[in-house]
Write a structure and sequence with these properties.
about 160 residues; alpha+beta; four-stranded antiparallel sheet; 4 helices; globular
């Protein structure tokens, strides 16, 4: 009689105690972002991205000193134009200082990956402390794509296809 009462209890404990380990993606990791809105740091601001959900920005010196496309023709002209404009304005928009629309994605991905930006969530009116980035390779040896995916609060925010072969 005692065995009939204990056996189901043991089975229940074993079943609930043996949960499947969560699959860990070694290509996905957390990135800490700028969280302090320091008025000195942001006295000259570059808005990297803005929509109804997020405002992403960095300071001007960080933007210019880490600009990832400095080897392209015309960068000097863009940099000089940005320097002239930031001397007059406290805020400039990255989209005005690029050659191709697709550069916006890669420059934004660069700052997100390096944590050199502040991400403000307009919906919750709070600063996002960290995001997750996943580096990925899809396809086979003859046709593949490589890129990065950025997640804010577990939701896909940006997908950057960096290479297609």
């Amino acid at each position: 009689m005692l065995l009939k009462k204990i056996f189901p209890l043991v089975i229940a404990i074993v079943l609930f105690g043996c949960k499947k380990d969560e699959e860990v993606n070694p290509n996905r990791f957390s990135i800490d972002l700028i969280v302090d809105y320091d008025s000195d740091f942001f006295s000259k601001t570059v808005v990297l991205f803005s929509d109804e959900n997020y405002l992403i920005k960095t300071n001007f010196d960080t933007y210019i000193n880490t600009y990832p496309f400095g080897i392209l023709d015309g960068f000097d002209e863009l940099e000089n134009s940005a320097r002239v404009d930031i001397a007059v304005n406290d805020t400039i928009y990255m989209s005005e200082y690029i050659r191709k629309k697709s550069d916006v994605t890669y420059i934004l991905a660069h700052h997100l990956e390096n944590g050199t930006c502040l991400v403000f969530d307009k919906v919750t009116a709070s600063v996002v402390e960290r995001l997750e980035m996943e580096a990925y390779i899809e396809g086979g040896p003859w046709s593949s794509s490589w890129g990065r995916r950025f997640y804010i609060g577990g939701k896909l925010f940006l997908d950057s296809v960096d290479l297609i072969s």
